[in-house]
Amino acid sequence: MLGRTMDQIRTTEQVNAALTTCQTLRLDGLVIIGGVTSNTDAAQLAETFAEAKCSTKVVGVPVTFYGDLKNQFVEANVGFDTICKVNSQLISNICTDALSAEKYYYFIRLMGRRASHVALECALQSHPNMVILSEEVAASKLTLYDITKQICDAVQARAELGKYHGVILLPEGLIESIPEVYALLQEIHVLLKKGVSVGSISKQLSPWASALYESMPPFIKKQLLLSPESDESAQLSQIETEKLLAQLVETEMETRTKNGTYKGKKFNSVCHFFGYQARGSLPSKFDCDYAHALGHVSYHLLAAGFNGYMATVTNLKNDVYKWRCGGAPFTAMMTVRRLLRGPGSSLIGKPLIHPVAVDLKGKPYELLLRDAEKFLMDDLYSNPGPIQYIGSGSDNKTICLSVEDQDYMGRVKELQAYLEQVRTIVKPGCSQEVLKAALSSMASVLEILTLMSPAVKGSITGHV
């Protein structure tokens, strides 16, 4: 293991340095372990090595606790199961305390940059009163005021039932999903790139951005001015969104008390950020088995001379002996997006493996919506307990993996079996009726697939 980094390969010099190192060490293979960024870099290295006729083959392994490296070949990421199990137990412990003290609202921020998979899964496992997903906020274009009002309305509704406690989950990427805050961060980052000092940035913001910035609490102002990460995103782990929302809710509840629309007890909050507690945990049994299988697959891909492939294991929601091992080319997972550069012009960006957001039409989100009202009002807290290696709970998988139907390669094999059956039935000597039925059916199938193929191709190879 060479180590862990958040940096991306950005320059030709960095690529050439990696090439030189692999040639100097006479490496047969290079296995890159990580998420969308790491595997995008792996794809770039694989192509460069092939062009340079370097003997080092490059293989990627899907490992990220964000859970956002998903496609038809990759059903889950190593680490996601562990972080969700650990976080869910911590959240459940907080839920128990909330139910005992009956006087605090706990705002808990979870890791998850561009996608809220961790927050969604933890909500399904631990049943907090509320979870606010980045994807919901982005889709509905909710403002900071909208989110604050949503929480305040929930607090008031619970107070009418005599409940003055609750647990609210937030993904760390939430702050970038709020339209006006994202625009403010973009302005700040542009000014930082231009070399404007932190102390002078406020004066150079646009009028609306300056007004928003000045309305923020001092601690948030300081955090918004932090230099962006290497991928141009804000330092989300350093921005205490949970404290910002807790303060805004407290202010709004005080306002409602003064104008007589809220007559309950005083609102009290406690804030937590669950990040490194879960990331440093011993892995779950599922992650141990999954990583073990991917390690073997990586070896066999390299031994067979494959370059530019990601190790894959599918059918994961079933027992280990039913898992299907294989490999998929990076190119099948990459998209090319157009980047707008002024009116009427665009620039095609380089191919990337993009993070996948929570599907607001998917089964896991549908499951959350089904029980959201009960979770909010009835305190149906659930504690999955600690990670187990032996016993009835040791083989539990994430709820999202269990309810999703992702067996892409299984469907491919099933289709191949059907085609083989057709080949067996429709052969020289079959009746005219069978032949006519087969021709008619295949013509209809081909017509449907031809109409669908542009959409299918767009979902794999790129979109504007």
From TrEMBL:
Which metal ions or organic cofactors does this protein require, according to UniProt?
Answer: Mg(2+)
Record-linked InterPro entries = ATP_PFK, Phosphofructokinase_dom, PKF_sf
* Single GO biological process annotation from the record: photosynthesis
- Catalysed reactions listed for this entry: beta-D-fructose 6-phosphate + diphosphate = beta-D-fructose 1,6-bisphosphate + phosphate + H(+)
Q: What is this protein called?
A: Pyrophosphate--fructose 6-phosphate 1-phosphotransferase subunit alpha-like isoform X1
Output the Gene Ontology terms for molecular function.
Answer: 6-phosphofructokinase activity; diphosphate-fructose-6-phosphate 1-phosphotransferase activity; metal ion binding
Known PANTHER family for this protein?
PYROPHOSPHATE--FRUCTOSE 6-PHOSPHATE 1-PHOSPHOTRANSFERASE, PYROPHOSPHATE--FRUCTOSE 6-PHOSPHATE 1-PHOSPHOTRANSFERASE SUBUNIT ALPHA
